[in-house]
Structures are given as C-alpha cells and as structure tokens.
Amino acid sequence: MRIPWIVPWIIxxxxxGVALGAVVDVxxxxxxxxxxxxxxxxxxGQAYFGHLDDSALSGTLTLRDVYYLxxxxxxxxxxxxxxxxxxxxxxxxxDGMRIRRDKVLVIERVGxxxxxxxxxxxxxxxxxxxxx
Amino acid sequence: MRLDRRVVRWLVAVVVALAAVVGLSxxxxxxxxxTVASAGELDAQRGAAERAIQRVYAAGLDQxxxxxxLKLAITDAQAAAIEQKYADQLKALRRSALQAVGDAYxxxxxxxxxxxxxAEPRLDGTPAAxxxxxxxxxxxxAIVERMGQLTSQLTDQGIREMTQAQPSGSPAASPSxxxxxxxxxxxxxxxxxxxx
Lengths: 132, 196
Hints:
The complex is a heterodimer. Chain A is α+β, with helices and mostly antiparallel strands. Chain A has two helices and six strands; from the N terminus they run H-E-E-E-E-E-E-H. Chain A has a single domain, classed as SH3 type barrels. In chain A, about 25% of the residues lie in helices and about 30% in strands. By secondary structure, chain B is mainly α. Chain B has a domain of about 120 residues. In chain B, helix 2 runs parallel beside helix 5 and helix 3 packs antiparallel against helix 5. At the A-B interface, helix 1, strand 4 and helix 2 of A face helix 1, helix 2 and helix 5 of B.
C-alpha cells in the first residue's frame, strides 16, 4: 500500500509542533503579553524574583534582573521587608543567576500589581529618571 | 569522501532548528516586555519613603527625650543642651535623606534642596492620613536604611553623653566601659585665655 504524499507533510509538522510546544513557553515569547516576573522558591526557603529562562535544553534555570527580599524590621518602613536588587553584593554578580533545578521547590508568577511587582517597576522608573 | 545530498539537507535542517530555538530564547530575554512605574506609583513611593524617614527621625527624638526624662548625673540644663544638639543633628540628617530622595527622582541639587525644605514642615505638621502600605523600591529603601544607621549612631552618642557621670574625685564615678573623649558642657570653672 502506498502512503498518500500529503501524510508526511501533516505528520512531520505535527511532531515538530508538539516538540516545540513542550519546550517553548508561548506566553514568554518576545513582544507577547505583559512582563513576566517569576518568583523562584528554593528548597532551603530562599526566594528570588526576576525574568526566568526555563529552557528544557539546559540543566539549569537562568534568572535575570534578579531581586530578593531583605529584612527591614525596625526600619520605619510600611512593610517589615525590603526588596533588594541583586548585583550590589561585594562580588557584584553579573549576567544573571544560574539555578540547579533540583534546588527549586516552587516557581510562581509575580503579580505586576503586587507590592514586589510595584517596587521593581518603581526601581526601573527611578533608574531611568536618574540617568536622564 | 562525498556526503549524500540527503544527509546534508538533514544536517542543515537540524542546525537551523537548533539555531531557531537558541535565537528564540535570546530574543525572549532581550525583548521581554518590562513594566515601569507610572507617575502616580512614583508619588506613592515618595510618600512611603517620607513616612519611613519621618518614623526613623521621630524614633531618634523619642529616644533622646526618654533618656533625658531619666534621673541623670548631669544637670537638667546640661541634658537639655545635649538633647538640643543631637535633635539638631537628627534634623539635618532628615533633610539630607529627603534631598537624597529628591536626587533619586532625578532632580537637580537645587530642586532636591527645595523639595526637602518644603517636605520638612509638612512632616512636622499633622500626621498624614493613613494610606495603603507600599513596599519601597530598592533605591529608596537604601536611603531609609542609611538614615536608620546614622540615626542609631547619633542617638547612641547622645544617650552616652547624657548618661555619663560628671567627673568627680571618686575613682568609681564612671561606669562606662570605654572612656569617652566627647566634650561635654560643664559648669566647673576653667581657666580663661582672657584672664577673667
């Protein structure tokens, strides 16, 4: 029996589509939707916020433009926590943060209207204002 | 050795597919949409920073006031002078912090000074109506944190000066662990360069 010529042209793109669908997060495609800030919670309780690159081809996750929560108890602020931008530490980490997958407990999306989302947006606006 | 044309085609296809995946990932990182705060949100941040600065300032003044209300080894006039000296320094510190907030918003030095001068009486006046809590942007929090550190240093110094025993002939007069060389107001007669 001879297979009709169109069958490979249907099956092959379908396989490619399924494979890409498993690897690529459609909502994180460039120019699509709003900003996507992820909260990565580690098994030891630490949490970091930033743009997550979760490529299935890599053994690690990559977080860019990273922030984390610091203690602000007794500092007079509205919250007992502060948002700290990663990069100001003594070793001045650059080029994002690579994270071993087995150390990650949960990954969640940060609401852009949440206190953390707003603090990050305000930091960007201040950086732009000060560089004008 | 000649490669079969079919094999070459497949190799090219695989390389192109891999390049597309990598390129997509890089494009996602480079062109990811980012959110920037609106003017209203920046105003809310400024208000929250002012509130935090005022709380730190008020806590410093309270500490000095509480210490002065204790039974001290120095006279009340001396304690008042020390309290006034450190209250003035705390005020100057608050002004610097407010100017730093102005600087963070991209204002010129003159604009920041003007903003601080306008904000001070407002903060000293009636407490602002309660507003929704705001998590400070890292840049603004750094200002508040620095002010907190300097306020602690100033109030500690003021408290040390107020609680230090007056010098006397008794060897057990001063309980402080470390001798302080900070000058204190004194009523004891001293030699005057004018000879009077």
